[in-house]
Structure formats: C-alpha cells, structure tokens
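Hi, here's the filled form for the chain we discussed.

Project: internal
Contact: R.S.
Residues: 127
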Amino acid sequence: DVQLQASGGGLVQAGGSLRLSCAASGFTFEDYGIAWFRQAPGKERENVACINNSDGTTYYVDSVKGRFTISSDNAKKMAYLQMNKLKPADTAVYYCAVIPVEYMLTMVWPEFEYDYWGQGTQVTVSS
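And the returned structure, exactly as it came back:
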C-alpha cells in the first residue's frame, strides 16, 4: 500500500524557514513524482511544488518560485520542501502526494491531480 507521511511543520515568523519531509513507501519511487500541495481554511487546494523522481524535473507555483525548493532522495524514498522567506500567506496544511510519471506527462502543471496523499503538516507563519 502507498504510504506517505509528512512532517516538519510548525510556527515560524515571517521571513523564516522550515523544511518539510515526506517519507514514502509502498511503491517504486523512481516511477513517480512527489508533490506538495497546501490547503488553507476557506481556500481551495493549491499545488505548490512537484519533482519527477525519474529525471529530477521540478515544478513550482509562481507564488513560491525563488523561495521554496523541492528535492528528493531516491535511495531513502524521501522528499523534502525547503521553504525560505516564509510569508503569512504561506500558512496552510501541507500535504505530500504521489503521481505516476506517466500521468505527469499527460497533465499540465499546476493542474496535477493525485490518487494518494498523506496526512498533512501544519505550517503557520506569523506576521
């Protein structure tokens, strides 16, 4: 079974940094992309970043470009989201999700859709 566990959230002041981690199991890591999406109260879900584990291609939503960096470690089956220069608008529950690489090729970022995601981790940025 696909299992994803996100961790690393917390409370940080504006301008600060956090690093989220996603532990993955139950699938062939290199055949999938790992994505991070977020959802704030009263707002629609927003795809934040994605990495294609087969070739390392990365995707970012415009609002986080230059501030967030997604990475993955195929050997450890881990993905990470380094978040710098955090803003109050980044406050949300962050989830990691998986998407088959073959599906990524048929979708247009940031409209990727996912069949599996884990429990989220809360990120709160104070002003």
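Let me know if anything looks off before we file it.
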